[in-house]
Amino acid sequence: MSALPAVTDATFAAEVLASPKPVLVDYWADWCAPCRQLTPIVAQFAEEYGDRVKFVALDANTNTAVPMTYNVNNLPTIQVFQGGQIVASLTGNVTKIKLRQMLDDVA
């Protein structure tokens, strides 16, 4: 389970697309070992960047419409939305350095 606030297919538009600040979406699943490794790193950055970027998690097991809409074919996937559009994306084994660089670019 992710430490971030959860979004679902039903709440995605209001929580992510309509947000006035950038939103990092962490797509995860309970069976995904790399997702479990990434969760504490994303949670740490949520504390560090939380005033500039909103952080949420979407369980791809129980919410399939959003991942299909945004071509999330592999887990873990991190996408940053700004103004309702994807402005940055990382997939697979995401390093702390890559994630920090992405956040610095959008924050």
* Class based on secondary structure composition and strand pairing: alpha/beta
CATH topology type: Glutaredoxin
Fraction of helical residues: 25-40%
- The CATH architecture designation is 3-Layer(aba) Sandwich
Number of helices: 4
- What order do the SSEs take from the amino end to the carboxyl end, as H and E? EHEHEHEEH
CA-CA gap between termini: 26 Å
- How would a textbook summarize the main sheet? 5 strands, mixed
Note the beta-strand portion: 25-35%
- The CATH class assignment is Alpha Beta
As laid out across the biggest beta sheet, the strand order is 1-3-2-4-5
- Determine the mean pLDDT: 95
Query: How many distinct folded domains?
Result: 1
Name of the CATH homologous superfamily: Glutaredoxin
Q: Stretches where pLDDT falls below 50 for ≥5 residues? A: none
- How many beta strands in the DSSP annotation? 5
What is the molecular shape?
Answer: globular
Work out the radius of gyration.
12 Å
Label this structure with key terms.
107 residues; alpha/beta; Glutaredoxin; five-stranded mixed beta sheet; 4 helices; 5 strands
Compact description:
By secondary structure, the chain is an alpha/beta fold.
